[in-house]
Amino acid sequence: MAIAVPAVLFSCTDNNDTSSTVTATVKLEAAADVTIPEGAVFTVTATNFDTKQEISVEAENMTAVFTDLVPGRYTFMTSYMETTGTDNNIYSGSLTNTNILEDAELTISIKVAKSSALVFKELYYNASKTSANKPYLKEQFYEIYNNSNETVYVDGLCFGHLMPENATGKSNYDWGAQYPVSDYVFFARIMQVPGTPGTDKKYPLNPGESIILCQYATDHTVPELNPNSIDLSSCEFEWYEPSNTNQTDQDAINLKMAFPINPSSPYKVWSTTTNGPAFAMFFPTEEFTNDKIATDQNNGVSTSYPVPASIILDAVEAIKDETQVQNKRVPTSLDAGYIWVTDDNGEPAIQVGKSIVRKVLYTASDGHVILQDTNNTTNDFELKTREIRRYGAKAPSWNTWAN
Questions:
Q1: Distances (CA, A) of 350 to 125, 164, 221, 224
Q2: Percent helix, strand and coil across the chain, each to the nearest 5
Q3: Domain for residue 402, yes or no?
Q4: Which residues make beta-bridge pairs with 190?
Q5: Is residue 230 within 8 Å of residue 206, measured between CB atoms?
Q6: Nearest to 191 by CA among 266, 258, 267, 237
Q7: Among 105-119, 164-178, 199-213, 246-260, which is the least confidently predicted range?
Q8: From the CB of residue 154, how many other CB atoms can be counted at a distance below 10 Å?
Q9: Of 105, 152, 235, 321, which has the highest C-beta tally within 10 A?
Q10: SS3 for 98?
């Protein structure tokens, strides 16, 4: 079974001034070692950076022709999913922040990745404010869901956010020639579930179940914290740092900080920027060691932990607003798109209590939902008010403290 997946739903406004329009011809070419399935149909979506106009065109013979485009900056994205048995192969590619000021021919390199059993279901990094209008970040949480039909053991699972921690809209790091940005993701911090992947089986996650990872697994709605917040006391994992006198150890299992490796690192609290972080998760295939740490060749100070894109299970790119579209932190083979949080008026906003949430694709015969995963955040996610375990996701049986 093959399913063509458009990058973004078609929506555009009429443009009556055709005297100054241009044509963009977008050719889709398979990257090295990629074989695109015979008969694959790609839909390419062009988004005007300034007007927000979106136009979708179905590619013919691997070429999409956009006529009557208003000159300006554009992002082009495409995805195609092929399902064989229980495997989903996702073919995708994108071009970001491309100036189309005259007729142009462009090429999108199509890469392939498998849809993971474990996916990010909800990422709540945006935070909220207290009744005194103060930022409240302690409530940040991240939900990981078993989107497959088989049990997955999350022992040793790693997740974290990427460099640069704040999306800058420009490329300002050079991690060295041995780490090409198309083949690696560069972590700013990595948290790890206790255990050894493939060996330990203490934390099974059945189909339709999820785990919640947070900074502080408590009921944040109590008066002394933030009545405008949410109850996270049922979370499976938290980051507890004993030296943090503002936090007490809860029932949730304590996460391990795998990177930074140095215990004297100033990063003692797990928190994520509200200005558009990029996330990824993986099962490590080797020990974390200091010799693998990369140092920025430009400033000689900033560090990251490079992880091969080939072992990344899922990645999601969030940005602050459309000015930060260019120079993605996540290789397009893992995520061809992006998303940002807006307020009720559609304006980019922080601390408004909204999550980015993966869409439902369909409901399985046993009642649990299958979430959409085309390796394109623009296509797969939407904004919703924060809510843990939405869509009826269940807590795993070993979480005996969940409500």
A1: 9, 18, 20, 23
A2: 5, 40, 55
A3: no
A4: 160, 259
A5: no
A6: 258
A7: 164-178
A8: 26
A9: 235
A10: strand
Tokens 């900080």 belong to residue: 257
Buried b (16+ CB within 10 A) or exposed e, 165-182: bebbbeeebebeeebebe
Shared domain for 161 and 194, answered yes or no, is yes
The CA–CA distances, whole Å, from 314 to 253, 281, 286, 389 equal 22, 6, 19, 18
CATH number, residue 24 = 2.60.40.10
Tell me 359's DSSP state.
P
DSSP 288: -
Half-sphere exposure at residue 279, Cβ-oriented, CA atoms within 13 angstroms: 27
Burial (CB count within 10 angstroms: exposed 0-12, middle 13-18, buried 19+), residue 150: exposed
Lookup result for tokens 């939900």 = 143
DSSP letter, residue 89:
E
Q: What pLDDT digit, counting tens, does each position of 301-359 carry?
A: 889 999 999 999 999 999 998 888 777 899 888 898 899 999 999 999 999 999 999 99
From CA 61, how far away is CA 128, in angstroms rounded?
48
Report angle CA 238, 243, 244 to the nearest 5 degrees.
60
- Count the domains in the chain: 2
197 three-class SS: coil
- For residue range 41-74, list pLDDT tens digits in order: 999 999 888 787 889 999 999 999 999 999 998 9
Token pair for residue 342?
Answer: 């807006």
Q: Regarding beta strands 237-238 and 253-254, do their DSSP bridges make them parallel or antiparallel, or are they unpaired?
A: parallel
Global pTM?
Answer: 0.82
Q: Which token pair is 330?
A: 């996540």
User: Are 89 and 184 part of one and the same domain?
Assistant: no
Domain that holds residue 138: 118-392
Among residues 141, 94, 145, the alpha carbon closest in space to that of 375 is found at 94
